[in-house]
Amino acid sequence: MKNKTKCWPSAVAVVGIILGLMVLTTTLVQAAETSGCHWVVLEGHVTGEFPEFSGVLSGDLQGTIDVVLDDEETSIGDVIRGSGEETWVISGGTIPALVGRTLTSVFTFVQRYPPGQESISFINGLYRVVDGAERGKLTFHAIFNASVLPFTVDSKYRGVVCP
């Protein structure tokens, strides 16, 4: 008979970590909102071919996206590092102060192809708003699909934007 009590401490640790992350996220959201900034959750869907992509933005900010990748990508094994610039033309969303504005961000990313996969890769990166708002920083996680032309990229963004 297996001893089920051995799992108890690790389960408590996992629950503690999850609750801690929830409190941290709530604290960050409240801090952003009291400073005049806004916590945003967004999704982007773009298509294109290197180095240009375009598409739509949805979530707390809505509008269009234009992406231009730099020519300075580096590759080490199955990992690609790169950077670029992204422009969002905001036409709607939950932050009225940003509607009608164009936000420009610079970003860096790491793209990794899972073992045995040649057409689907995962991208993680950081954004910094450089024009159109006082400031902003976001993270993003994306799935790049090279099995279709034009290529598709589905991204999820989280972060803070300050009008």
What does this structure look like?
Helix content is 17%, strand content 57%. The chain is α+β, with helices and mostly antiparallel strands and 163 residues long. It has two domains: 1-34; 38-162, Porin. Strands 1-2-3-5-6-7-8-9 form an eight-stranded antiparallel beta barrel. It is globular, with a radius of gyration of 19 Å. It starts with 6 loop residues before the first helix and ends with a strand. The model has no long low-confidence stretch (mean pLDDT 86).
Question: What labels describe this entry?
Answer:
2 domains, alpha+beta, 17% helix, Porin, single chain, globular, 163 residues
Chain-wise SSE layout:
Elements: H1 7-34, E1 38-49, E2 52-59, E3 61-69, E4 74-76, E5 79-93, E6 102-112, E7 120-131, E8 135-145, E9 151-162
Antiparallel strand pairs: 1-2, 1-9, 2-3, 3-5, 4-5, 5-6, 6-7, 7-8, 8-9
Q: Structural class from helices and strands? A: alpha+beta
Q: Give the low-confidence spans.
A: none
Largest sheet: 8 strands, antiparallel, barrel
Count of alpha/pi helices? 1
Task: Give the gist of this structure.
The chain has 163 residues and is of the alpha+beta class. Helices cover 17% and strands 57% of the residues.
